[in-house]
Write a structure and sequence with these properties.
59% of the residues lie in helices and 0% in strands. With 135 residues, the protein is an all-alpha fold. It folds into 3 domains: 48 residues, no CATH class; 37 residues; 39 residues, no CATH class. The radius of gyration is 18 Å and the shape is elongated.
Length: 135
């Protein structure tokens, strides 16, 4: 079984809707977020988003994570990372399928921000990774 679980959407049998009460709102949000993260849905939905919509959505997610989680919670609850933050190049062996290793993707992201990944110090690389994952 993978690190991420989506049990609530399959188990909840109550009312779905917003505005009735806080408890129903929270349960509805949990169901919608789990439905939203379905692989099949995302394959169809994400390509339809504009660049601005993607930036807005990820910005909102990062702001909520930053505002509501402590650093250790972010790593353990959200990233499911029990170890120190490290760059993992292609943990599932899909590098050929994805076209780029993790480090190549970081190089590309750096270039988009006017930085050169290979000239950054280890501390600067860590800070860059934290910046792009925490906003």
């Amino acid at each position: 079984m993978g690190k991420f679980a989506h049990r609530f959407v399959h188990q909840y049998r109550g009312l779905l809707g917003f505005g009735f009460d806080r408890e129903t709102d929270e349960k509805t949000l949990k169901v919608y977020l789990q439905m939203f993260s379905d692989d099949t849905f995302l394959e169809s939905f994400v390509p339809r988003l504009s660049d601005q919509e993607m930036e807005d959505l990820i910005g909102q997610i990062f702001r909520l994570l930053k505002n509501h989680l402590k650093d250790d919670e972010y790593h353990s609850l959200f990233l499911k990372d029990d170890e120190d933050l490290e760059i993992r190049s292609d943990p599932e062996g899909d590098e050929e399928k994805n076209g780029q290793s993790g480090e190549d993707q970081l190089r590309w992201l750096c270039s988009k921000k006017g930085l050169d990944w290979d000239s950054l110090t280890e501390k600067e690389k860590e800070e860059f990774i934290l910046e792009i994952t925490r906003c």
